[in-house]
Specification:
heterodimer; A: alpha/beta; 15 helices; 44% helix; B: 219 residues; alpha+beta; 11 helices; 2 strands; elongated
Chain lengths: 409, 219
C-alpha cells in the first residue's frame, strides 16, 4: 500500500504579496484547463530529502488551483533501498558492480508497487530512479507519464544506466535540473529547475531580533564582516578550501567566517571532515564551525540574512539550492562554477563565479571593497530567483508541461 | 472617450524549456549549432531569455553573447552579438542569418580563438510556448491601463516583446492596438520606443503607464 500523506494547506494568495497579484492570476489561468484532471506524483520517501521537501509544498499549492493532485510513495524493504542507494551512487559515477540479484530485487518491488499504487491519473510524474520501473503499469489510453530526474546523469555507471534506460525510454518525456545533467535520449527532455519556497522557515522574512539572537548564541559579531558557507561537512563542499580563502581575505579585511552544516554525529564521513575542518581552523576565534541540529531552518535563515558575503565553494555540486536561498535574501554570493551553480550565478550579474581558492578570495575581496556592486548583485540575484527558482515558478512549469502534453496528444 | 470596436484581449504565456541535442565547446562549434539548431532554439536564446532575464539592464542581451563573454572570454565578439537588437527582426530566419554572420566573420578573422575551448559548454535549448487568455479585455484607454497594471511579467513580455514575431511587424501588441483600435498613432509610437534592453519589465511597464496617464489627462 502506498502511504497516505496529509499535507498542510498553503493559501496561494499568501504569495501574492511577495510576487504580485498578476503572477497568481496567471497561475490560475494556466490551471483552468486542467481543473478536475488527475495528476499523480510518485517518489520513494514521504519525509527527508529534497524531493519530499518540494512535494510537501508543491502538492498543497496545486490543490489551491483546484487541481486533482495526489502524491503517492512507493514502498520497499531495506533490501530495495540498499539497491537503489547503490544505483543512486553509481549514477553519480561511483564505482559499483551490480549483481543480477540487485536487478531482481529492483524488479520484484517494482512489480509489487505496480499492483498496489493507483497509477490511474491522466498525468503521472515519477520522481527519480527508484520508482522509474512503474512505467510497466502504465495503462493504455489517454494518459501521460513523465520522469523527473533530480540527479546528475552526466557520468553514470554504464551497467546501471543501461538497465534503467529501458524504462526511461518508455516515458513521454524526462525532466532534468540542468542540460549538463541530461543524457542523449530519444524522448523529449525538459529543463526543470529545483526551487525554494519563499514562505518556508528557511526563507521567510525574520524579525531582526531573532537574527540578533542567533548571532549572539553563536558568538558572532554583527558589526564585523561575516562570510558564511552553509553546507554539510563533506569534502565535495570544500570547507577546508573555504577556510584557506578566508585566510587570504583576512589579510586585507577584518572578518569572521561561519561554516554551518548539519550535525556530523550520525555521518561517519562527515565526522572525519569536521575534524579536518577544526584542525584547519586552528582555534581561530573568528572561525565559527557550527554543527546545527538536523533541519534548523530558522537558524540557517538567520545566518544567511546576517552574512556580508555568502560562499558556496563546492568542488562538485548538484544544483546547489543554498545559492538560491542566499540570493533570495539579496546576499552577494561567491560560488564555484560547478553543477547547477552557473545557472543561478550569472557571472557579474547575479553573483561572482570562481574556480580556485585564490579566485574565491579575490572575488570576496572585490565585493568587500565595492559594497555598492555587492548590493546590486544581491538585488539582481533576488530578481533572478524570483523569475526562475521559486516554488510558484516550478508549479507554473508543471502546468505548462501538462498543457503541452495534453495539446500534443 | 474613444471606444475600440475590437477589444484588446489580455493573454499570458508560459514556456517549457526543451533541452536540445546540440552543444558547443568552442566558438566554431557555436557557429555550427547556430546553423543547425531549430527556430525555437534561436527564439529561446534571444527573445525568451530577454524576458526571463529582464532584470539585467546592463550588459546582458542574449544567451549567445553571455556565453561568449563569460565562458569563451571573447569580449569583442560578445559585444557584437549583444548589439543585435531583436526589435530589428520580425523573423527568426533573419535573426539567425545575422547571428551566423557575426560569429562566422569572427571565426574567419580569428581562427585560433574560434578553436579555443570555453570554460563551460553552451547547451542549445528551445522554448515550447503555451498561451492562455486571462479572461480580461479592454475597449477604452482606462480599461487598457487597468489591464496592463495588473499583468504578470510573462503576460507583459508576451504582449510587449514576443509579439513582434507574431505580428511580423516592428511593433508590439500594445502599440498595434493603440494605433489601430483607439486611433492613437502618436501614443502607439511613443510606447514602441520604450527601450526593452535598458529597462526591466517593471520599469517598461511604469513608463508605459505614465504615457497612458498623460494621454488620459489630455483627453
Amino acid at each position: 500500500m502506498s502511504e497516505i500523506l496529509t499535507l498542510t494547506r498553503i493559501p496561494l494568495d499568501d504569495y501574492a504579496e511577495l510576487l504580485g497579484a498578476g503572477e497568481i492570476e496567471e497561475l490560475r489561468a494556466l490551471a483552468k484547463p486542467l481543473r478536475g484532471r488527475g495528476i499523480e506524483m510518485i517518489n520513494s520517501t514521504a519525509v527527508g530529502g529534497g524531493v519530499a521537501e518540494i512535494l510537501t509544498r508543491l502538492v498543497p499549492l496545486a490543490e489551491e488551483l483546484d487541481l486533482n493532485i495526489k502524491w503517492d510513495v512507493m514502498t520497499g524493504g531495506q533490501d530495495f533501498f540498499d539497491v537503489t542507494k547503490s544505483f543512486h551512487n553509481a549514477l553519480h559515477g561511483a564505482p559499483y558492480h551490480a549483481s543480477p540479484r540487485d536487478f531482481e530485487i529492483f524488479l520484484a518491488y517494482t512489480k509489487r508497487n505496480c499492483a498496489t499504487l493507483p497509477l490511474d491519473s491522466e498525468f503521472v510524474v515519477i520522481h527519480d530512479p527508484q520508482p522509474c520501473g512503474l512505467i510497466d503499469a502504465r495503462p493504455s489510453g489517454a494518459n501521460h507519464w513523465v520522469w523527473r530526474c533530480h540527479i546528475d546523469l552526466s557520468h553514470p555507471n554504464r551497467t546501471v544506466w543501461d538497465f534503467l534506460e529501458k524504462f526511461v525510454s518508455r516515458y513521454e518525456g524526462a525532466m532534468f535540473s540542468s542540460p549538463e545533467f541530461s543524457r542523449q535520449l530519444a524522448i523529449p527532455q525538459y529543463l526543470f529547475y529545483p526551487a525554494i519556497d519563499p514562505l518556508s522557515e528557511k526563507n521567510r522574512p525574520l524579525d531582526q531580533e531573532f537574527t540578533a539572537d542567533v548571532l549572539s548564541r553563536y558568538q558572532i559579531d554583527p558589526h564585523r564582516v561575516i562570510l558564511t558557507q552553509i553546507s554539510r561537512f563533506d569534502r565535495l563542499k570544500d570547507p577546508v578550501g573555504v577556510i584557506r580563502a578566508y585566510r587570504i581575505v583576512k589579510r586585507y579585511f577584518d572578518c569572521q567566517l561561519v561554516l554551518a552544516g548539519g550535525s556530523a554525529s550520525d555521518d561517519p564521513e562527515g565526522a572525519v571532515v569536521l575534524k579536518e575542518v577544526l584542525r584547519e581552523a586552528q582555534s581561530d576565534p573568528d572561525i565559527k564551525v557550527l554543527e546545527l541540529p538536523a533541519w534548523a531552518p530558522l537558524e540557517v535563515n538567520a545566518l544567511q540574512r546576517a552574512s556580508t558575503v555568502v560562499i558556496q565553494k563546492s568542488l562538485r555540486e548538484g544544483f546547489g539550492l543554498t545559492v538560491s536561498e542566499a540570493l533570495w535574501k539579496k546576499k552577494p554570493v561567491v560560488a564555484s562554477a560547478v553543477g547547477g551553480i552557473p545557472i543561478q550565478i550569472i557571472h557579474k550579474h547575479t553573483g561572482l563565479l570562481s574556480h580556485s581558492i585564490e579566485g574565491t578570495a579575490y572575488q570576496i575581496r572585490f565585493l568587500l571593497s565595492h559594497p555598492e556592486i555587492a548590493a546590486k548583485l544581491g538585488e539582481q540575484g533576488h530578481q533572478h530567483v524570483k523569475e526562475n527558482f521559486l516554488i510558484t515558478q516550478k508549479l507554473k512549469r508543471y502546468l505548462t508541461l501538462f498543457l503541452t502534453l495534453a495539446r500534443n496528444s | 472617450m474613444n471606444v475600440a470596436e475590437t477589444p484588446f484581449e489580455f493573454f499570458t504565456v508560459s514556456y517549457l524549456t526543451r533541452i536540445g541535442n546540440l552543444s558547443a565547446g568552442t566558438i566554431a562549434e557555436l557557429l555550427t549549432g547556430l546553423e543547425n539548431c531549430s527556430d525555437a532554439s534561436i527564439f529561446h536564446h534571444t527573445f525568451q531569455t530577454l524576458g526571463s532575464h529582464h532584470f539585467l539592464t546592463e550588459g546582458f542581451s542574449n544567451d549567445f553573447a553571455q556565453w561568449v563573454l563569460a565562458d569563451a572570454n571573447r569580449n569583442d565578439l560578445a559585444e557584437q552579438l549583444a548589439a543585435l537588437d531583436i526589435r530589428d527582426y520580425v523573423s527568426i530566419a533573419a535573426l539567425r542569418r545575422d547571428l551566423c554572420r557575426v560569429v562566422g566573420d569572427y571565426g574567419t578573422g580569428y581562427p585560433h580563438f574560434a578553436a579555443q575551448s570555453a570554460l563551460e559548454r553552451f547547451y542549445f535549448c528551445e522554448s515550447t510556448e503555451v498561451t492562455v487568455p486571462l479572461g480580461r479585455s479592454a475597449q477604452t484607454l482606462e480599461e487598457f491601463r487597468d489591464g496592463i497594471a495588473h499583468l504578470s511579467h510573462a503576460a507583459f513580455y508576451f504582449h510587449f516583446i514576443s509579439s513582434r514575431l507574431r505580428l511580423q511587424l516592428r511593433t508590439n501588441d500594445f502599440s498595434h492596438w493603440l494605433a489601430d483600435g483607439l486611433g492613437l498613432p502618436s501614443l502607439a509610437d511613443s510606447v514602441n520606443h520604450i527601450d526593452i534592453y535598458t529597462n526591466t519589465l517593471d520599469s517598461s511597464r511604469s513608463k508605459l503607464l505614465r504615457l497612458l496617464d498623460r494621454e488620459q489627462r489630455k483627453a
